[in-house]
Amino acid sequence: MQWTVVVPLKALARAKSRLSDTAADAVRPGLALAFAQDTVAAALACAAVRDVAVVTDDPVAGRALAALGARIVPDEPAGGLNAALAHGAAAVRALRPRGAVAALNADLPALRPVELARVLDAAAEFPRAFLPDAAEIGTTLLAATPGGELRPSFGPDSRARHRASGAVELDLAEVPSVRQDVDTGDDLRAALSLGVGPHTTAATARLLIPGQPGG
Ligand SMILES: Nc1nc2c(ncn2[C@@H]2O[C@H](COP(=O)(O)OP(=O)(O)OP(=O)(O)O)[C@@H](O)[C@H]2O)c(=O)[nH]1
Ligand SMILES: C=C(OP(=O)(O)O)C(=O)O
Question: Is 3-204 in CATH node 3.90.550.10?
Answer without folding.
Answer: yes
